[in-house]
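The data are set out underneath:

___
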Amino acid sequence: MLVLVPVLVALALWAFAWPAARTAPRDLPLGVAGPAAATGRAERQLGRNEGAFDLHRYANESAARDAIRDREVYGAVAVTAKGPKLLTASAASPVVAQLLEQASARMAPEGARVPTEDVVAAPEGDPRGAALSASVLPLALAGMAAGALAWLLRLRGTRGVLVLIGSAALVGAVGAGIADSWLGVLSGDWWAEAAAIGLTVLAVASAVAGLGSLLGYRGIGLGALVAILFGNPFSGVSSAPEMLPEPLGLLGQFLPPGAGGTLLRSVSFFDGNGADSPAVVLTVWAVLGLLTVALARGRAGSPHTARPLQEGRGEERTERRGEEPAAEQTGTPQPSAPFRSA
C-alpha cells in the first residue's frame, strides 16, 4: 500500500494532467488556398510558430472546402481579392477552431477582423463538443465491464464470442439512441453511429476478455490500464490528437478509445470521411481478442482443480468410517483378517 498507491496516483496524474497541461498545436494540418503569389504572406505568418502547423496548399477556396469535409485538414486560410478568409470545422474540434480564429487575427489589419465560416459546424446540442468528449470514458468502462464479466463467468469459445458481440451491439444501439435521438449531440446516420459505438465497445471488451483468458486477473488489470488509464487521456477527443505531446497523440489513435472517438466523429459529422484508419484499428483489436476467447475454450472448465479435492474428501470419509484404504498391489502377501484385527 505504501508503494503501489502513490505509484498509481503518480501514473494517473501523468496520464491525465500532463497532456492537458501541454496542449498545443503540433504539425496540425491546416490548408492555405489561393494563388501562390497571394498566399506567401499568410504562410509566413502561420510559420512563425515553428512546428505548429502542417500547411497544405490548395488552388482555390472550393478545393480547401472539400479538403475540410474529407478530414484532410482542420481548417484553411483562403486568400481572396477582399483579403484573407478563415474556414473552420468546429465538428472536427471546437478547440482547434477557436485556436485558428486566434491565429488568423494576426493576418488582418489592425482593428479589422478576418471573416470566418464554419464549413462543418458542430451540432446545436453540443456546440463545444463537451458531450462527445465525455462519452469516451463510459464506452471504455462499458467494454471493460463486458470483458471482465465474460471472463469471470467463464464464457469461452463460441458462446463467449457471441455474448461479447451481442452485448457490444446492444450498447451501440443504446448509445446511439441516447446521443443522437435524445440529446442530439450526434447528427449523422443513426445506424452508422450505433455501429461505431458498438465496434468501440467490442474492441475493448474482447481485448479485456482475451487478456483475462491468457493472464487471469493480471490480464484484466492490463486491459484496464490500456483502455482507461492510457486510452482515455491519449484519445485526443477533447481537442485533437495533434494537440497532445508527441508521441501520445499518435499512440492514442492506436488504442480503442482514441480510434473510437475519431470514428464516431467521422460517421456523425463527415459522412464517413476519415473513418478507414480508426475502423481498421478497432477491427484488429476486436478480432485478436475474439480469437483469443474462442481458442480458450479448452481451459474454460475446472476439472483438474476439482478432482484432487474430491479424492481427498473420499479418503477422509473412508478413514472416518474406520476403514483403511486398499493396499497397493506390490506383490507382497497381505496379512490375514485376524492379524489385522490384532
The two ends are 60 Å apart (CA to CA). Residues 298-316, 323-330, 336-342 have pLDDT under 50 and may be disordered. Residues 130-299 form one domain.
